[in-house]
# Entry
Amino acid sequence: MNRRTSSQSDPAIHAGIAALAGLVGTWSGGGSGRYPTMQPFDYLETVTISHVGKPFLSYHQRTQHADTRQLLHTESGFWRMGGPGHVELLIAQPTGLVEVLEGTIESGTIRLRSSLVGRTSSAKDVTLVEREFTIAEDVLSYSLRMTAVGCDLANHLEAELRRVQ
Ligand code: HEM
# Structure
């Protein structure tokens, strides 16, 4: 059965990921970072989330320091639905980390927790990641907590982005 309608130029979002449709777009804004081991910092961020009519969303993010404009973290991955209300997110990072996260979407809020953090042998010791996203009209906000480098679960990131496209 064909579960979606599509045209060559502008495919409809796949019915299986309709719950994630509000994420699609280009988002830009700023955030702040902290961790018990480091000085707090502010950053600028652009997130692009797109689809091709298949049951996944492509995700790419890049950041730079708010003051110096130095490039900071970047990451790429895929959003999926594992079943009704069940969200799956896979992310690869140039710091040698990969995250597999799963959780829920409810009333525009997505709460995810890592079921796996994979690390290359030289990557920082990150063992758990929690990410929370809230979509409210044209504002996408998120927070990230992690257990890393010998610290208990603590905030690393908070950001608020606006839809620019
Ligand atoms: C918006 C995305 C992010 C930004 C802007 C960001 C920025 C930073 C900065 C500026 C530092 C301190 C300098 C450095 O060690 O490079 C840092 C450290 C670190 N970040 Fe992030 N980061 C981001 C996402 C992440 C994610 C997704 C993870 C883990 C899954 C992560 C894990 C770490 C770790 C483990 C450290 C080192 C802590 C330490 O050794 O004291 N970061 N991050």
